[in-house]
Amino acid sequence: MRGADPAIVLVPGVGMFSFGANKQTARVAGEFYVNAINVMRGAEAISTYAPIDEAEKFAIEYWLLEEAKLQRMPKPKPLATRVAFVTGAGSGIGKAIAERLAAEGACVVVSDLNAESAATVAAGIGSTDVAVSVASDVSDEDAVAAAFRAAALAFCGVDLVVNNAGLSISKPLLETTVRDWDLQHDVMAKGSFLVSREAARIMKAQAMGGDIIYISSKNSVFAGPNNVAYSATKADQAHQVRLLAAELGGDQIRVNGINPDGVVRGSGIFAAGWGAQRAAVYGVDEDKLGEYYAQRTLLKREVLPEHVADAVFVLTGGELSRTTGLHIPVDSGVAAGFLR
Predict the structure, then answer these.
(1) CA-to-CA dists, residue 1 to 26, 31, 37, 212, angstroms
(2) CB proximity list for 11: less than 8 A, separation 6 or greater
């Protein structure tokens, strides 16, 4: 029903529902249908409505100029008909992911704790036919449920979810407080669990499968200095990928993860103090931190938000339809973070 071709469904006593590759297509299909009914109503008011004969229909559909136009039409984008829900999408990696998924044809729900940032990103992507924003605290069970209800109201469902929301606290063990630990785990470990659970409920009800992506970290397997709370919660996220892939596979819900290295440029997390903390740990100037991270990799190249977005698209664009439970490193080659 949510295929590429528009469809109109009439439910007696309830009303009309229109479906299409995206919200705009569905809306236009509904407008065409209503206009057609008005033409029929007008004809019946004068005499009797009758459609054109089959020969005339054929002449219209297979008019040579019409055929030429159809041949020049672009192919449907890979993510057309899909509805994506991206957390922490008000900046940095999440913003890049939301923009890439929309560019590939998806309708996107931009979720962020900061309502203004989420609205700005959604507006930058396009009209509400393509992107909407929701303000949501992923650590709050009721807020997560409300955000998914808003997504379903906007686009009739959700079938591609990216767990990206996060924060970073860099402290040695003896300076890490219980509040630090709880905050780090509430947002990323518990937050990812709540988002994935709500997504799975909707995907199971839709019975059309889906994708859940975790933006984890190379720190899920790499033991860096002064990073116990952050790295521990990233390891938690990484194992959620494996557990949920095993549990949800029977429903054709694929669960995969991405392990980036430090994404400095364009990152809301690094701009909020994490960059200064990590720079102090490594003894470099904060404005040189991205370069420092790059130089310790095998490729000597900095990782940017769009590189993580590329990996999300690779996992969800249809070419890896038989892949679940996978973690993809996007770290320019950190040997200590190699998966074993």
Answers:
(1) 11, 18, 22, 22
(2) 17
Residue 185's contacts (CB-CB under 8 Å, 6 or more residues apart) are: 229, 232, 233, 236
Among the listed residues 33, 62, 214, 230, the single catalytic one is 230
DSSP per position, 246-292: HHHGGGTEEEEEEEE----TT-HHIIIIIHHHHHHHHTS-GGGHHHH
What is the spatial distance between Cα 314 and Cα 40, in angstroms, rounded to a whole number? Answer: 47
Contacts of 320 (CB under 8 A, 6+ apart): 314
CA dist 248 and 325 (Å) reads 10
Q: Which residues contact 297 (CB under 8 A, 6 or more apart)?
A: 261, 331, 332, 333, 334
pTM equals 0.85
Q: Cα–Cα distance between 92 and 306 in angstroms, integer?
A: 9
> Over the stretch 268-313, which tens digit does the pLDDT of each residue have?
666 666 667 777 877 888 788 888 888 989 999 999 999 999 999 9
* Strands 15-19 and 7-11, bridge-based pairing: antiparallel
**Over 60: is that where the pLDDT of 231 sits?**
yes
Tokens 């008011």 sit at which residue? Answer: 45
Examine the residue annotation and report whether 33 is marked as an active-site residue of this protein: no
Q: Which two tokens stand for residue 59?
A: 């002449």
Whole-number Å distance between alpha carbons of 48 and 38: 13
Amino acid identity of 101?
A: L
Cβ atoms < 10 Å from Cβ of 78: 15
Between helix 178-185 and helix 228-248 the angle, nearest 10°, is: 30
How many Å apart are CA 93 and CA 309, to the nearest integer? 7
